[in-house]
Amino acid sequence: MSLQTVPSDAAEQRSNRPEDVQALEADARLRDDIRLLGRILGDTVRDQEGADVFDLVERIRQTSIRFHRDEDRIARRELEQILDSMSTSETVRIVRAFSYFSHLANIAEDQNNIRQMRAGKGGGSGVLAETLGKAKGAGIGTDMLRNFFKSALVSPVLTAHPTEVRRKSTMDREMEVAALLDRRERVTLTADEVDASDEQLRREVLTLWQTNLLRRTKLTVLDEVANGLSFYDYTFLREVPRLVNTLEDRLEEGGEAAASELASFLRMGSWIGGDRDGNPFVTADVMRGTLRLQSSRVMQFYLEELHVLGSELSIAAHLADVSEELRTLAERSPDTSPHRSGEPYRLAVSGIYARLTATAEKLQVEITRRPVGKGAPYGSVRELQADLDVLHRSLISNNARVIARGRLRLLRRAVDCFGFHLARLDIRQNSAVHERTIAELMDAANPGMSYLALGEEARISLLTNELRSTRALVSPFVKYSDETMGELNVFHAAAEAHAMFGSDAIPQCIISMCTGMSDMLEVAVLLKEVGLVHPSGRSAINVVPLFETIEDLQASSAIMDRMLSLHDYRRLVDSRGSVQEVMLGYSDSNKDGGFVTSGWELYKAEIGLVDVFERHGVRLRLFHGRGGSVGRGGGPSYDAIVAQPGGAVNGQIRITEQGEIITSKYSNAEVGRNNLEILAAATLDASLLQPSQSAPRREYLTAMDELSNLAFKAYRGLVYETDGFVDYFWASTVINEIATLNIGSRPASRKKTRAIEDLRAIPWVFSWAQCRLMLPGWYGFGSAVEQWIAEHPDKGMPFLKELYKEWPFFRMLLSNMDMVLAKSSIAIASRYAELVPDEGLREKIFGRIRREWHSCIETLLDIMGQDRLLQGNPLLERSVRHRFPYLDPLNHVQVELLKAHRAQNPDEQVLRGIQLTINGISAGLRNTG
User: Fold this and answer.
1) H helices within 121-166, ranges in order?
2) Catalytic residue at 591?
């Protein structure tokens, strides 16, 4: 919290490495911002808590640095003595100080990223412009690019996965701090303005200090929906249409304007309020409420934009010509004000406003604005688009193109992107629930039948016949279970949503833990019961299998091959434009088989799926269920997309955005716009500029298969085959305590057991991050490489270095491990291992983990040709290094609090202190879930 929070320039300058010198120059203002915020926080702590607490914070920080750097035993004992001597109340205040510094340092780092992003765009270019330039350089013309985007789909899908530990109240204050830093960056301030800015920063930091970091109550699903919708205000409502319009302009540079506008290929998706897998609180009524909240947000946006547009379009009829269709639209307006009698555009806008208000009332969504008169509600979003197009054509035809390209253009594009529904809501449920629902319906309709006793082939035959049947399966005379009625109600609510908001409101039904054909056919039959699938072979919704475990990924190609060969299912696919979406689960496959095997089986599944879909003449759209952490598929989006096998992207991709990653990517409009550009640019790059063959050289595939098998054995050997590992995990991590945080509406486990198999992937990864091992992001790689080299002395390390140089997939795999290992700390992890009461178990398991950690780092650096972790990414290296002085103390305090809590300390401040450390560590690591 003092000036020494960041290493001094003199200390840093001892290194003469060119990359370090360059990083120092680039980060000079970052250090200034961190010092400024650190000084203000330090002053706040001193003023609010006293000099003794401030001095204690500094002692802990300095001792922690010595321990982290050298695993210094003297520093360790000194640190333990300091922590043991603190009261619980002091401990909580110390934790809050370090936690808030994590949050403030994140703000400074985000501002630095924005600064460098702007510097990179000094010439007016960004990642999307660069990729377009590469495409044109490769001989891909404007017409071909426009055709590409005509059928393209880039869809970030927001989920409510519980990895964002911050409250919205604290995020709002942090955004104010960021805005103040941004203004200091952009505007040359006078001395008085600098003083005023400093005082405002102090005001915001003090408010933060006096605001609860933790939620006192558990979030409801609709709370999660509301939180998710805030990012539309921050970023999506304006930046999504702006990005598509900018791309349209770039495609027209140096040529004539196209006859038609660029297709709106960027579409927002959501699971919040539609994801029922393991969340009993997502019901039909909650889903209806979700859709109304979404519609309310977008309708309010349209009305506000129309209100401003009406004030802007003050064009007088006697000064500028207007089209006949515009006159007709103006004449239909209910606005009778004499002040606007000669202003046809304003009258037309008033009429549109009145009709849109009536539409909101018809859809039963809340709005705060009222019209100047009554209007007929729009029957569909197309009718609203048609009216806005009348304004556009009139302006264009009367030499007012520059006016048409202003607010009206953005509004027209927004309506095209968001409709009346705002985001495309997916509905998702576990295949086991669908199975039980169908079993109850089938057994009731066919006395004497036991659906659950049928084999897979018999189920396929029965379900296929049911798809063709014109009679209803559900009977009004049968009393079904609450679970079955709950599922049927959700499907009925989906059908209602299609009727009210249009088919884009709920376009996908996703089947978690899909293991076979019957899992998909069961959903098709349930959809037929509510009219979303018709016996004639038409479907109004996509049936999407989610393959999650290693075994299911390996079977995915064969399952889809048979599904696309099944006449009755293929008719449904053809009715959806011959596009079939397949979702791939990164989280559960990692928990099941480890990082290396998960990544490799996902890649192989994509190769197999590409080949199957090409043979069947069906377009494959992959939906990537990535988390924020590397252990759940996280990492740089551009690299991940471009590293897909040839044909796996093919112009369409959907990707989940989860938890704290949503905040880091989309709470700032400029950063959000850049992240949307990255998704669009990478989709273009992967589809048109990367090699078209789905698989690399055969010897690469063989080597990766062998490495994966070896890593799989190492990972499974530790996690699933070592006696006592479950006890070690539950004792050495905060898995129990995470469940006490009010960070989401969904339970942490699928079943009430301690088994790793039943634990959700998010708390699994989150727990390993908290103890700084990040085990799901690397375990098994080091021993696999060592064994592979021993078995292939003729190829050895030079061949693996070739893989890294030539193969984007392998390069991305290692790059992500590089980042994860840089954030880990075996020294700190050793303190968590001491929480395991059985000394023999502790030594047996932590000894294996420690050996594998060292092996993994050594082999990784050798293959990558680096002397240290993150050598190739100096900015991230410095960021991680600067976090340790305030991150490590939180870990040390967490360990002491865990000891007290598990010793049944009755002080409720102990558990609160643990929760605060979880918050602070999560903020310091950033992508923990």
Assistant:
1) 127-137, 142-150
2) yes
Report d(CA 764, CA 775) in Å as an integer: 10
Contacting residues for 644 by C-beta, under 8 A, at least 6 apart: 603, 606, 622, 686
DSSP-assigned letter for residue 744: -
Backbone φ, ψ for residue 514 (5° rounding) = -75, 125
Integer Cα distance of 526 and 662 in angstroms: 33
Q: What would the two tokens of residue 188 be?
A: 């040359």
At 792, the amino acid letter reads: H
Yes or no: say if 342 and 329 are a contact pair by the CB < 8 Å rule.
no
Contact 628, 163 (CB under 8 A): yes
Eight-state DSSP code of residue 926 = S
Q: Mapping DSSP to helix (H, G, I), strand (E, B) and coil, where does residue 472 land?
A: coil
Q: What is the pLDDT of residue 165?
A: 60
Query: Which helix H or strand E contains 269, and what residues bound it?
Result: strand 269-270
| Contact indicator for 349, 305 with CB cutoff of 8 Å | no
Contacts of 414 (CB under 8 A, 6+ apart): 237, 238, 240, 241, 301, 302, 305
Mean pLDDT by 10 residues, the chain (929 residues): 39 45 65 89 94 89 74 78 86 89 87 80 72 92 93 94 68 90 89 93 95 81 92 97 95 72 96 93 97 97 97 94 96 89 95 96 89 91 98 96 97 98 98 98 95 97 96 95 97 97 97 97 98 97 96 97 98 98 88 92 95 97 74 64 90 89 88 93 92 78 96 96 96 88 57 77 88 94 97 96 93 93 93 96 96 97 96 84 81 92 90 89 73
What pLDDT score was predicted for residue 750?
Answer: 55
Q: How much is the CA Rg of the chain, to the nearest whole Å?
A: 29
Q: Which helix (H) or strand (E) holds 656?
A: strand 652-658
Selected catalytic residue, list 103, 161, 823, 901: 161
Count the neighbouring beta carbons within 10 Å of the beta carbon of residue 122: 7
Taking the C-alpha atoms of residue 386 and residue 755, their distance in angstroms, rounded to an integer, is 57
- Per DSSP, the three-state class of 288 is helix
Non-local CB neighbours of 47 within 8 Å, separated by 6+ positions = none
**Bridge partners, residue 557, by sequence:** none
Strands, E, within 290-440: which ranges? 424-425, 427-430
CA angle 274, 660, 777 (to 5 degrees): 100
Question: What are residue 891's phi and psi, to 5 degrees?
Answer: -65, -45
Please report, as a single letter, which amino acid is at residue 15: S
How many angstroms separate the first and last alpha carbons of the chain?
A: 27
What's the rounded Cα separation, in Å, for the pair 83 and 96?
A: 15
3-state secondary structure of 338: helix
How far, in Å, CA of 719 to CA of 717, rounded?
A: 6
Q: Cα(872)–Cα(209) distance, rounded to whole angstroms?
A: 37
CA distances from 494 to 161, 439, 506, 913 (A): 22, 22, 7, 43
Q: For residue 764, give both structure tokens.
A: 């699994």
How many residues comprise the chain? 929
Pairing type for strands 153-159 and 652-658 reads parallel
* The residue to which tokens 């006159």 are assigned: 327
3-state secondary structure of 270: strand
> Which tokens hold the place of 205?
């930091």
Q: Could you give the CA distance from residue 530 to residue 465 in angstroms, rounded to a whole number? A: 17
Rounded Cα distance between 424 and 295, Å, is 11
Q: Which residue is catalytic, options 528, 591, 665, 823?
A: 591
Asked if 161 is an active-site residue, the reply is yes
CA–CA dist 293, 299 (Å, integer): 10
For residue 141, give every residue at least 6 positions away whose Cβ sits within 8 Å of its Cβ, in sequence order, or none.
none
Four-residue CA torsion sign, 111, 113, 115, 117: negative
Q: Could you tell me the sign of the dihedral formed by the alpha carbons of 170, 173, 177, 182, in that order?
A: positive
| Ramachandran region, residue 869 (left: φ > 0; alpha: ψ -120 to 50; beta: rest) | beta
Contact 886, 6 (CB under 8 A): no
